[in-house]
Amino acid sequence: MSALSRLLKDLYQGEAELERQLHEVAERHRTEHEVHHVALDVSRWCRRHRELLAHTAPGYGADLPAAESEETPGPLAALREKAAEALGRRPEPGLLLLHDLTELHLAAARNSLHWEMLAQAGQAMKEQPLLELASRCHPETLRQMRWTNTLVKILSPQVLTST
Asked: Which domain of life is it from (predicted)?
């Protein structure tokens, strides 16, 4: 397996993992409407990124499966929803939300680095399809990072200084 095909697979898996995490956070923090709805919205970007990767990858020695949606609730979704409702009434959900936002940010940052590597490889190889793919997807990943970072800036003072 070439280094480029490995990168494509890692990026595909990273997008799948970020999509999964976004869905879990949306379910866990159902009572935080902005978090819930935005997490579901930006998770769709991950799926589209995987679709585009799966379409492009065969030309570079990587065989990636078609992207399956994470939008169908898993068997634990009802349990997570009840837990979210119960946690919504306690002071600890703020810390849990900060933790979840941190994990989302780190997953998006990892993907961002992979998109940057793909763009650099495409530029070095003069491969326009790789450059176009990275140019199309990377800005959305950067927006995911800005969203998590903004929420952390807003929430951390109140969560970390409350007694």
From this structure: Bacteria
Exposure letters 43-73 (e unless 16+ CB within 10 A, then b): bebbbebbebbbebbeebebebeebeebeee
Q: In whole angstroms, give the CA distance from residue 94 to residue 110.
A: 24
Contact 142, 42 (CB under 8 A): no
Q: Among 143, 135, 145, which residue's Cα sits nearest to residue 108?
A: 145
Per-residue pLDDT tens over the stretch 4-35: 999 999 999 999 999 999 999 999 999 999 99
Q: How far apart are CA 6 and CA 60, in angstroms?
A: 10
User: Which tokens is 121 given?
Assistant: 């490889």
pTM of the model: 0.85
Domains and CATH numbers, the chain: 3-161 (1.20.1260)
CB atoms within 10 A of CB 99: 11
Report the candidate in 155, 154, 15, 22 with the shortest Cα–Cα distance to residue 97: 155
